[in-house]
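Subgroup meeting minutes
Present: P.N., E.W., G.H.
Scribe: E.W.

1. P.N. recapped why we're keeping a running log of single-chain structure predictions: easier to compare across weeks, and new members can see raw inputs and outputs side by side.
2. G.H. added today's entry (187 aa).
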Amino acid sequence: MSVLRSSLGATLVVLAALQLAGCASQQFSFGGFGSSAPEQAPAPSGGGPALPASIPAQDLVGRWGLAAFHNEADRARTEAAARSQCQKPYNISRGARGGVVMHLADQSQPTELMLKGGPDGKNYIGLAEEPASGPRDREIIAFDGRVLVTRFVDPEIAGRYGTSVYVRCGAETAPGARKGAPKAKKA
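Output recorded in log:
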């Protein structure tokens, strides 16, 4: 009989421990009884509302020569290489929701991406539903209307793709040039 009691006692202790463990893993909310207010979802990992970019999306729309570098010393040479790619330009078009249509890393189909301002004062190009500076975003390193320099935020992706240099193609290549404006005569 003492063996039966000790087995029964041990079983009860194990069951009590399991029951307590089950209670500890559940979350209770006592403040919501009698209220019809929905529970608030946690804030996105980027925190707070999206900030507007200081660069309007329409400023990126157009035809661009594209090249990339991994070493900052190659930046000037890469800009010249990008300019030579205007024979086969990379087209950035306007998106239906106000963004720009570009490719995400490792994607063969272009996607509408939004220009987003970050809390750090930087500008990013990425998916609207992700916070600024998300891992699939590109940071805009420099933009003067003629040359756009971007780098992917994710270090692994940036390591594969490098820093991208886009040079505007056509009449828009010269700073301050406007379509329909008279061309300067050569001396």
